[in-house]
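Appendix B. One record, verbatim.
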Amino acid sequence: MDVQEVRKLDAYLKRLFGNARIRVVPREEDSANVFVGEENVGQLRLDDDDDDDDRSYNFEMKITVGDAPAKVPISRSWMPISAQVRQRGASASCRA
């Protein structure tokens, strides 16, 4: 991910979730961490979809349940949430 891609993704996530405290920080060539304030809340990864020329990203977020009420059965202490952010050359949704 280059600087321009990171900026577009950062702006897109801020608009999508309505939170100006979201930051996208590049990690490796094809991934980035997503922060809300100082808390790392998830990771973006480039999706290797070779079907077309679009660049797609998978967003994975782990949510810690914490002290859940005793009446609610929980099989895991975290739940993955995946969202795919698509970036296209002419797409207005990812433009900064």
